[in-house]
Task: structure prediction
Amino acid sequence: QSVLTQPPSVSGAPGQRGTISCTGSSSNIGAGYDVHWYQQFPGTAPKLLIFGDNNRPSGVPDRFSGSKSGTSASLAITGLQAEDEADYYCQSYDNSLRTWVFGGGTKLTVL
Amino acid sequence: QVQLQESGPGLVKPSETLSLICTVSGGSISSYYWSWIRQSPGKGLEWIGYIYFFGRTNYNPSLKSRATMSVDTSQKQFSLKLSSVTAADTAMYYCARSIAARPGEYFFDHWGQGTLVTVSS
Result:
């Protein structure tokens, strides 16, 4: 069980909007710490997708966006494409555990 | 483009010490924090610790002081030693560059491809 809770799976049709939630607590997201998101394809390393709640590194399409409110954060993907099928992880800092923590990951399926 | 490459034994016996090296290429090792992160089916992604280029370290308290990191700036390498390993330490181990958008707000912008370490007799 991860400190940050994500749904195990989400799905959507091509062209639709997909959303992945990341629920934390008052010692991490709720304390105001930044949330970051990673994309991971099978057999490869995670890749930075969103940093600082809602910033995209160079090269990440603007179809990907992040948001944060209270003790939760969300990753939104507009115009779903087959190539978006991957695992997605959120990450933040926890001041109770004194460590950087990850969500358990969400498998996105594009139907 | 910064690239990271992990190297080390893929099999370690229980109670022994796991040793890995990460080699940085295509960029400077200086002025950055460098992390080790592992991924296992049972525990997901877990941050192990980081080392700053001049040697300052910070470790995940859950590892109960079993982790030790060091850096060799001349070779552009940093390393991880994890002592007294058990089967629970079996995982894919990644090295990654750590970046902070705000003080203390670290995230990981470049990752190695990972190396699988199995703990078994």
The first strand of chain B starts at residue 3 and ends at 7. The mean pLDDT of chain B is 94.
